[in-house]
Amino acid sequence: MRIDIISVVPELLQSPLQHSIMQRAQEKGLLEVVVHNLRDYGLGNYRQIDDYQYGGGAGMVMMIEPVAKCMDTLMAERKYDEVIYLTPDGQRLEQPIANQLSLKGNLMMLCGHYKGVDERIREHYITMEISIGDFVLSGGELPAAILVDSIGRLLPGVLGDETSALFDSFQDNLLAPPVYTRPANYNGWKVPDILLSGHEARIEDWRYEKALERTQTRRPDLLERDD
């Protein structure tokens, strides 16, 4: 999979994408992430990428020309399955979206900034708009990093255990069950006996019951979905 990210502040994406699981995914050749500095396509000697909005009002707007030039350049090199705009008013990111996007081959992401991007970019280039929650950040770089991570970890071969991602929270609309590791007894706090039994079927039943119980307590709304 290849993901191209267009950013006003590409430095913000360096650390999240160059460590841990995302680093290993790229070193294995399973994921390629390329960050493009929008200022490389800026206008004039100062590489301008933003301007005042028509009609007045506070805040600058990402100009159509630099963004379109960047996107046209990338689209001339390859076909993209989705062109994603990271914006607070987009569709909220949930696990099924990450699952769906992990099956794609090429993705392009535009990180929102300032008061947003010229609406004509959204009308003529963007195919999907994603938000990570009902709040506003300084830009779309951190949401883009979150989206890349949520997708990249699902690619076959990225995680050490191929089945690990299948048991994450929100898969099948359930939160993940409690997990334990050694020692089995710490200060009198004991690991449930069933997990030490070696009986796989009973352990799986226990995990399902605990996942259901946790979901009913903490996120009952997940159980009302018809996915």
Can you give a write-up of this model?
This protein is α/β, with parallel strands linked by helices and 227 residues long. It has two domains: 2-152, 3-Layer(aba) Sandwich (Alpha/beta knot); 169-224, Orthogonal Bundle (Trp Operon Repressor, Chain A). The protein has helices at residues 14-17, 20-27, 64-77, 95-101, 119-124, 141-152, 200-218; strands at residues 2-7, 32-37, 50-52, 60-62, 82-92, 106-111, 128-131, 185-186, 189-190. Strands 2-1-6-5-7 form a five-stranded parallel sheet. It is elongated. It starts with a strand and ends in a 9-residue tail after the last helix.
Q: How does the SSE layout of this entry go?
A:
Elements: E1 2-7, H1 14-17, H2 20-27, E2 32-37, E3 50-52, E4 60-62, H3 64-77, E5 82-92, H4 95-101, E6 106-111, H5 119-124, E7 128-131, H6 141-152, E8 185-186, E9 189-190, H7 200-218
Parallel strand pairs: 1-2, 1-6, 5-6, 5-7
Antiparallel strand pairs: 3-4, 8-9
Summarize this entry quickly.
By secondary structure, this protein is of the alpha/beta class.
Keywords:
227 residues, alpha/beta, Alpha/beta knot, Trp Operon Repressor, Chain A, 2 domains, five-stranded parallel beta sheet, 19% strand
Mean of all residue-level pLDDT scores: 93
Globular, elongated, flat, extended or rod-shaped: what is the shape? elongated
Low-confidence residue ranges: none
* Proportion of residues in helical segments: 25-40%
